[in-house]
Design goal:
- By secondary structure, the protein is an alpha+beta fold.
- The protein has one domain.
- It contains five helices and five strands.
- A five-stranded mixed sheet has the order 1-2-3-4-5.
- The longest helix has 26 residues.
- The protein is globular.
- The two termini are about 30 Å apart.
- The C terminus is likely disordered.
């Protein structure tokens, strides 16, 4: 069941997000991280970690917006600390960074939590509701999550991991999470059609022993 559920969400992503956009985002986020690192060089050790985090945010936001624009991802304007959001197919796309594999960082943003509410329609792909009608998926949210080591001596200029992730509607767990590089490799295999035709039991016709 776990593998089927994972493939359902993966296939939904593949149906709506072009491979070229993903490859552009991957390149852009690594480039933005490097620019952020260089911008923080020479700062005092007392606040260098803070400066580096801020520079990563700004430069990766700019690079992300550029990659979305090139691929027709319709990014929102860059403004202050606001997160950049792109849109392609049914998906809203955004990003955030984590440090030391602490995945709850994304929940700190009210905007990201509100974006994740759209994934209520995606949740049945992972956990079908027998007594609820399947709703068409007209809006969904995915994030690109760049993971940094949390140690200034270990790869401070580059993420040690970059994932694509689809949260649940409360952004408390992940319906799908996979290395972006591995996910891009899925496009080399013919995608499977997402099956949203889940079985439903009618009231009063639940059979336990072969009789009504």
């Amino acid at each position: 069941m776990e593998v089927v559920s994972k493939d359902n969400v993966a296939n939904l992503l593949m149906q709506h997000i072009p491979r070229d956009l993903l490859m552009g985002v991957e390149e852009a986020l690594f480039a933005g991280a490097l620019r952020g690192f260089k911008a923080a060089e020479g700062m005092h050790d007392g606040h260098k970690a803070t400066v580096l985090g801020q520079m990563r945010h700004f430069h990766m936001n700019e690079a992300f917006a550029e990659a979305l624009a090139v691929a027709g991802g319709n990014p929102t304007p860059i403004k202050g600390n606001a997160i950049v959001v792109g849109r392609v197919g049914v998906f809203a796309l955004s990003r955030f960074n984590i440090s030391g594999n602490i995945w709850n960082n994304g929940r700190r943003s009210r905007t990201r939590r509100e974006m994740s509410e759209a994934n209520r329609a995606v949740e049945p792909l992972v956990q079908p509701e027998l007594f609820e009608p399947v709703q068409p998926i007209t809006a969904a949210t995915a994030f690109f999550v760049a993971g940094f080591s949390g140690n200034k001596l270990v790869s401070p200029d580059s993420p040690i991991g970059l994932d694509i992730a689809v949260p649940d509607s409360r952004m408390q767990s992940w319906l799908f999470r996979e290395s972006l590089q591995k996910f891009i490799g899925r496009y080399d295999i013919a995608p499977i059609q997402v099956d949203t035709a889940f079985p439903k039991l009618k009231a009063g016709i639940i059979k336990l022993d072969g009789s009504e």
